[in-house]
Amino acid sequence: MRFGINRFGRALAIAGTLLTIGVPAASFLSQQAIAQQNVMRIAAVVNDDIISVLDLEQRLRLVALSSNLRLDQQTRQRLMPQVLRGLIDERLQAQEAENNGITISDREVDDEVRILAERNNIPPVQFPAFLSSRGIELETLRTQIRSQLAWARYAGRRLARQVEVGEEEIDEELLRLREVSDQPQKRTYEIFLGVDNPDEANQIRQDAERLLSQIQGGANFSSVANGFSESGTAAQGGDLGWIAPGQLPEELDEALADLQPGMISPPIRTFAGYYLLYVTDVQRIGRDPANTEISLFQLIQRVPGHASDQDRQAVVEDLRAAIPGIDSCEGLKRYGESRQGANVAAAQNIKLGELPSQVQEAIANLQPGQTSEPINNGNAILMITICERSDPGLTLPSRDQLKERLGTQRLELLVRRKMRDLRREAFIDIRL
Q1: Sequence-ordered list of residues with C-beta below 8 angstroms from that of 55, at least 6 positions apart, any chain
Q2: Residue 67: which region, alpha, beta or left (left: phi > 0; alpha: psi -120 to 50)?
Q3: Which residue among 65, 212, 354, 366 is least enclosed by CB atoms within 10 Å?
Q4: Spatial separation of the C-alpha atoms in residues 293 and 348, rounded to whole Å
C-alpha cells in the first residue's frame, strides 16, 4: 500500500465560509442535517448487510490514498463502480467466513495495521492521525483488513483441502520448464475483474479501461491491483512472479508475448473475465546472466581531455576497423601493444554482474575469441575480447516449490468459482 497526499477538508472549509459570511445557524444546521442524511443513504444491500454512502465514500478515499490518486470528481466517478463492487464482494466474503465459524481477533487486525504503518515509514502511534488528516477513519481500514484475513483463512481451511497436486503433474511441469528454458521469462503483474454474467461483460470491460486510464495517468499498478483486482495475487500487488511462455492461458500468453518491460496490456478478455497485464523485467528461466563468469583482455585507448568529438569519433572508427583481425585475447594484446597511447589489461574469472552496466551490455552476448565494439568511457575508449566464458547452468524450481505453485494456481480457481457462486446466490440491491 503506497500512500499519496490527499487532504479532505472540504466540509470544514464550507462551514468556515458560511460562518464568516454570517449565514444563520438554523440554515447551517439544516444543511448539516441534509449532509448527514446523504452520507447515511443506502448505497447497496448485500443479503442482510447494508453498505452506506458513507462506507463507499470512506473506501473511495482509502483507495485513492493507497493508489496515489487525486480524488477529484472525474476520478470519483471512474472509481465508484469498481469500489462499490469490491465492497459488495468483501461483504459476501465476510458473511461466508462468519457462516463457517471463522473470526478474526482485534489483535490480529492491530498487528496488520502496525505492519502497514511501518511499511509506509509512519510510526504506528501516529497512523490514526495520519488517516484522519486525509478524511479516513481508522475503522474503515480495520474493516477491510478483518475481511481480507477472514477470507484468506476461509480459503485456507475450506477450499485448500480440495486441492491435490500429483507427482505426474510436477513431472510434466518440470518437463515444460526445461523445454522453454532458453525462452525469456517476464516478471508479470495482473489485475483481474471477473465476469459472472455475460450481460455485465461490457460494463466490466469499461471498468478495466477506467483502471488502465488511471494507471496511465500515474497511479501505481500494484496499488491499483491491491485495491481492485479480484485475483488472489491482489494482496501481493498483483505479482504473478516470473512467467514463461505457455504458463498462462492462451489469451494471456499471446498478449504477454507482445509486452516489454514497462508496458501494460489493454483489457484482455478470457472466459473468466478481463485482465490487465504489466511487465517489469525479462530474464532467461533458471539462468541469471549476472552470474556468467568471464576472463577477458581489455584494451584501454587514452583520449586527451581537450580532444574534440570529431577526434574522439576518429579513434572509435580506427578501433572498430581492427575488430575483424582480432580473433583471440592474444590478438587483442598484440594489437594494443602496436598502438600509441594504448595499454592492455587482463582480468580473470569476473562475474558479468560485477562490471559496469555499459560494459555488461557490450559483452553480454560475446563468445570466446570475440571482441566488443569500442566503448566510450570518458577519457578512454575501451575494447574487450573474451578469453573464456562460463554461463550459469539451468536451475529449476524444486519439486516442493512446483507443488506449492501448482496448488496455489488451483486454489485460485476454486476461490474464483466460490465468489461466482456467492454472487449468484446472494440478494444484492444497488441503490445508487
Answers
A1: 43, 87, 140
A2: alpha
A3: 354
A4: 9
Q: Retrieve residue 291's grid coordinates.
A: 552470474
**What would the grid cell of residue 146 be?**
478483518
Which residue is associated with the grid cell 475483474? 193
By the 8 A CB rule, do 404 and 160 touch?
Answer: no
Domains and CATH numbers, the chain: 182-287 (3.10.50.40), 289-390 (3.10.50.40)
pLDDT per position as a tens digit, 126-171? 999 999 999 999 999 999 999 999 999 999 999 999 999 999 999 9
Q: What is the pTM of this model?
A: 0.62
Q: How far is CA 187 from CA 184, 242, 243, 261, 292, in A?
A: 10, 4, 6, 8, 21
Q: What is the total residue count of the chain?
A: 432
Q: For 319-374, write each residue's pLDDT tens digit.
A: 999 999 999 999 999 999 999 889 999 999 999 988 888 898 889 889 999 999 99
Distance (Å, whole) CA 349 – CA 290: 13
Write the pLDDT tens digit of every residue in 266-289: 999 998 899 999 999 887 766 677
| Cα–Cα distance, 273 to 89 (Å, whole number) | 15
Asked whether residue 9 carries a pLDDT value surpassing 80, the answer given is: no
Identify the band that residue 236 occupies on the pLDDT scale cut at 50, 70 and 90.
confident
- The answer to whether the CB of 394 falls within 8 A of the CB of 179 is no
Q: How many CB atoms lie within 10 A of CB 311?
A: 11
CB of 43 within 8 A of CB of 51?
A: yes
